[in-house]
Design goal:
This protein is an alpha/beta fold. Helix content is about 45%, strand content about 15%. The protein has an eight-stranded parallel β-barrel, surrounded by six helices. The protein is globular.
Length: about 325
């Protein structure tokens, strides 16, 4: 048993069942498909995730940026059609950018098409140029988020769609979480009693503090929320490959930090070891145990892709993580 975890609030069995989390599980975060080659590559990662028995595959929503995914629900529908076990999620479906009626209908349709395998992370967006392109004033994005979510809930509750037969939890929508960096986003998640989806660039200390803040703001009597965490993970016994990945991660945000929220910029100033897990099988296993002791995650969503690193190296890392490192971590944490 990893020390420290027993003192953390535990989510209910109902919450875990809704998310398909019978135990601590491993998910995969991918980028968007901007070309046919990107789409083919994405399908390859999804097929690999299904073959490895991973819990889920996740896509962000982002616009006008390299690797952006402008229509995550559309891409996930394609992935759902080619799989039978994987769940699919959005790490940040940006509610302020879209008509609530459209998003409510698309989520409900994909949830049904996928056989109840959809998970939805919601966000507001932070890039001012992107918000301006959609006619959204940055100061209004949180109010628009709340208004859109209110309308979506109203639309779902007004219909007769109950997901009957698609899961043991009886609710008219798939499980929801809220991506959040700072206090205002955490408060929005807590007011709804929804889990907070941690960013892959946050340090473990930041996530721990945010989890405490989020739990303190939950309505009285709320169940303890699930801990859903995103991390950058790379496993290799080749020290040269490990150095290449560290260099790639050190360079990937060059020239883009000023556009990031303050909490993200602060995280990016921390040592790489505080926001990524990179090392040999033994080293990453120890890093997982240390992270679990601190934040007690129920679902770890890993990012496997890095610029300038060959796909065969990245695939080998994920296979090793799923087949060797993760089972060792589960055995030792219990």
């Amino acid at each position: 048993m990893v020390a420290g975890v027993s003192s953390l609030p535990m989510p209910t069995a109902r919450a875990k069942s809704a998310w398909g989390l019978d135990q601590t599980r491993l998910g995969l975060s991918l980028g968007g498909s901007q070309t046919m080659a990107h789409a083919e590559r994405g399908r390859g990662w999804v097929q690999l995730a299904e073959s490895l028995g991973l819990h889920s595959v996740w896509l962000p929503e982002m616009h006008f940026a390299p690797g952006a995914c402008s229509a995550p629900l559309v891409e996930l529908a394609g992935y759902a059609a080619m799989t039978s076990q994987l769940r699919f999620g959005t790490t940040s479906l940006l509610l302020p950018l879209h008509p609530p009626e459209q998003i409510a209908a698309e989520i409900a349709a994909l949830d049904q098409i996928s056989g109840g395998r959809l998970l939805v992370g919601l966000g507001r967006g932070f890039n001012k140029k992107m918000l301006a392109a959609f006619g959204v004033a940055p100061a209004s994005k949180r109010d628009r988020f709340d208004a859109a979510l209110d309308q979506i809930f109203s639309l779902w509750s007004g219909g007769n769609q109950t997901r009957s037969g698609l899961g043991t939890h009886q609710q008219p929508h798939p499980p929801l979480a809220v991506a959040a960096f700072g206090p205002k986003g955490l408060a929005q998640a807590a007011r709804r009693g929804l889990p907070y989806l941690a960013s892959p660039v946050e340090t473990l200390d930041q996530i721990n503090d945010n989890q405490d803040r989020h739990r303190a703001l939950l309505p009285a009597g709320s169940d303890a929320p699930l801990s859903i965490v995103m991390r950058t993970v790379f496993v290799s016994e080749d020290r040269g490959e490990l150095d290449q990945v560290r260099d790639a991660l050190g360079q990937e945000m060059n020239g883009r930090r000023e556009a990031m929220p303050a909490a993200v910029r602060m995280a990016l100033e921390a040592p790489l070891s505080e926001r990524a897990m990179i090392g040999t099988e033994k080293e990453v296993t120890e890093q997982l145990k240390s992270a679990y002791a601190k934040i007690g995650f129920d679902l770890l969503i890993v990012r496997p892709q890095f610029a300038k690193i060959a796909d065969d190296v990245l695939v080998r890392s994920l296979v090793c993580l799923a087949n060797e490192v993760w089972p060792s971590f589960l055995d030792e944490k219990d």
